[in-house]
Write a structure and sequence with these properties.
Layout lengths: L4 E5 L10 H10 L5 E5 L14 E4 L16 H7 L3 E4 L2 H6 L4 H13 L3 E6 L3 H5 L3 H12 L9 E5 L13 H18 L8 E4 L7 H5 L6 E4 L6 H13 L1
Parallel strand pairs: 1-2, 1-8, 2-3, 3-4, 4-5, 5-6, 6-7, 7-8
Helix pairs in contact: 1-9, 4-6, 6-7
């Protein structure tokens, strides 16, 4: 069975005082039997060392070290206490022009550093409206997911770009179609394709989490805005525990 993961992406939000949200979350879900992953800004990773939750970076460089001012390597994230890292988030692909090849290189660096890479893929609104969603997913999966990956060191997050931070959510049928497609592609390519955790991301909230987690091949969520406050993230975690 793929592991269930409730993942929170804090993006460029949060300072030390916001770590009290993790304490609140620990009071509610400290003994959860699903994986709870928090991806704070890199500046807060080492300050999270006492949390029972998994901690992840939001990006890493593809090199181990070197002359890359402002970047953080996967080894540095691991050294700071991370066990996961997001790669290929659409905001990285858009803001920093990250290509599938670069996302694959970052994912390899993450795996080599002992991190689990959460590889993000998803179509834009234009691509969906012109019927290209599954083609885009195929291209991104083929280009971003390294051949050396396996279900223990990679997670796939399907995040339609048009659903991120917009309050718009695909229909359950649309989520089911894409997740089934991803599962089929993983099974065709990897012996343990059935074991990969597939997360849905894009405007997940307490009010829609249960129905999304009821969709086949959805093993959890990557959550942005609703992961910042324990009171908003907690119902999502509870819905995943019950799914
Ligand atoms: C995200 O940042 O990956 C995300 C899904 O954001 P939101 O939940 O705010 O749509």
């Amino acid at each position: 069975m793929p592991r269930k993961i409730a993942a929170g992406n804090w993006k460029m939000n949060g300072q030390r005082e916001n770590l009290r949200e993790l304490q609140r979350l620990e009071d509610l879900h400290g003994d959860a039997d699903i994986a709870i992953l928090i991806c704070p800004p890199a500046t807060l990773i080492s300050a999270c060392e006492d949390t029972p939750f998994d901690i992840g970076g939001q990006d890493c460089h593809s090199a181990v070290s070197g002359a890359h001012t402002g970047d953080v390597s996967a080894d540095m994230l691991a050294d700071a206490g991370a066990s996961y890292v997001l790669t290929g988030h659409s905001e990285r692909r858009t803001d920093h022009g990250e290509t599938d090849a670069l996302v694959a290189a970052k994912s390899v660096a993450a795996i080599d550093a002992g991190l689990i890479a959460v590889i993000c893929i998803g179509e834009t609104l234009d691509e969906r409206e012109s019927g290209k969603t599954l083609n885009v997913i195929d291209t991104q999966l083929a280009g971003s997911l390294p051949d050396s990956a396996n279900a223990q060191d990679c997670v796939i997050a399907y995040e339609p770009v048009w659903a991120i931070g917009t309050g718009k959510v695909p229909t359950l049928e649309q989520i089911a179609e894409v997740h089934a497609h991803i599962r089929a592609r993983l099974n065709a390519r990897f012996e343990d394709g059935d074991e990969f955790s597939l997360l849905y991301g894009g405007s997940v909230k307490g009010s829609n989490a249960a129905e999304i987690f009821g969709v086949a091949n959805v093993d959890g969520a990557l959550v942005g805005g609703a992961s910042l406050k324990a009171k908003d993230f907690s119902p999502i975690i509870t819905a995943l525990e019950r799914a």
